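User: Please check token order:
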Amino acid sequence: MARMKNGPFGPIIGKIGNKIAYIRLGEPIIKMAPHKSNKPRTPAQIAASDRMRVVMELISPLNSFTNVGFKLAARGTNKTAQNKAVSYQLNNALQGVYPDLSVDYSKVRLAEGKLNPPADTTVTYADGKLTFTWDKDADDTYNNYRLHVMMVAYLPDTKTEYCCIMGARKLAGEDFLPFVPADGTKPYAMVKETCAETYLAFISNDGEAISNTVYTGRVVF
């Protein structure tokens, strides 16, 4: 059943017959309701579905990061930040062909913008935390004191992530990302994880400027 929340002249929200009406990014949308097809799926459709599955397994745990990372890239378009993040990975971060698809983590992008990205980066693991370093003196379009680092570690074994959206200032040249302890003494990551794929980016104080992420490498535990 559809509803007219805003009166007889407002947008319709809900289901009408085989149509669904809703509001997306402030605009009223009407589309066909999902329905099961009796036609067998083609090899191309199966391959496309598998590409999407692989990308969504990567992006879904990272939504809190990519919703910030792709916010500016999505602004002024009819796409959401997640749409932009998914589209980028589909076009750039997959390797192999169906049924042997996988993610090329070195080509993953989790933030997109016009700031200069971190340079001369390193990452190390010790004592339950990842320590990231970068060149604090590299030139940028923003004054360095207005920039913060964004850090993220994706754990492919359990498809989880740890991230910090607004970390240390760029001028610090270093920050760390702790893993949440499971029992107060042993880092959870050491229980089930074998490695982490890590990334850095810069973001301005007000979030109105951001850089692309850079891949800082795989850390093996």
Q: What stands out?
A: The chain has one domain: 43-220.
